[in-house]
Amino acid sequence: MKNFRLIIALLVVASFISCNNRRTPSLQYMPDMYVSVPYNPNGAEGLNGNPVNSEPVAGTIARGGHASYDIPNTNEGYEKAKAELTNPIEASEENLENGKKMYDIYCATCHGTKGDGNGVLSQREKFSGIPNYKDRDINAGSIYHVIMHGKNLMGSHASQLTYKERWQIVQYVEQLRIELAK
């Protein structure tokens, strides 16, 4: 019983000690774990006072670079892309082959391997009205615009594909249109 009273007394004393004045900071063990030193990694001084490179790393795009797509997601933007955009990459077997690979991954489930709109999702009646490339009035610019922004039920694929992969898919879709027209 004596030990029980001693334990209760210690708990009461520990409670009063732990409930100190909250307006004064308590002792911190390893304070650098609680309060980190802020820095601006894009600032002029960078980390540890070392200057930040003013040139982007090779193979990357600087912030504000020109890899953005500025044509808006509107009917007017679609028509502008259709009228003004042309495929900047050369037509080659390598580009066509990679375009087919990317098309099979991202497009064939809906549009079908032949571009006839009869993909797996259409066959399983998950979506209806998937367009046939042969029946559409499309060109390289309009195809690229739809990949970037999506259209109707199709969402944007801009985040899944690189700039070059998008244009490779455009080349492959144009080849599918030619084959469907035969």
From TrEMBL:
Highest rank taxon of the organism: Bacteria
A GO term, aspect molecular function: electron transfer activity
One Pfam family this sequence matches: Cytochrome_CBB3
InterPro entries from the UniProt entry: Cyt_c-like_dom, Cyt_c-like_dom_sf
Domain Cytochrome c: 94-177
Record keywords, A-Z: Heme, Iron, Metal-binding
Gene3D superfamilies: Cytochrome c-like domain
Protein name as catalogued: Cytochrome c
Source taxonomy: Bacteria, Pseudomonadati, Bacteroidota, Flavobacteriia, Flavobacteriales
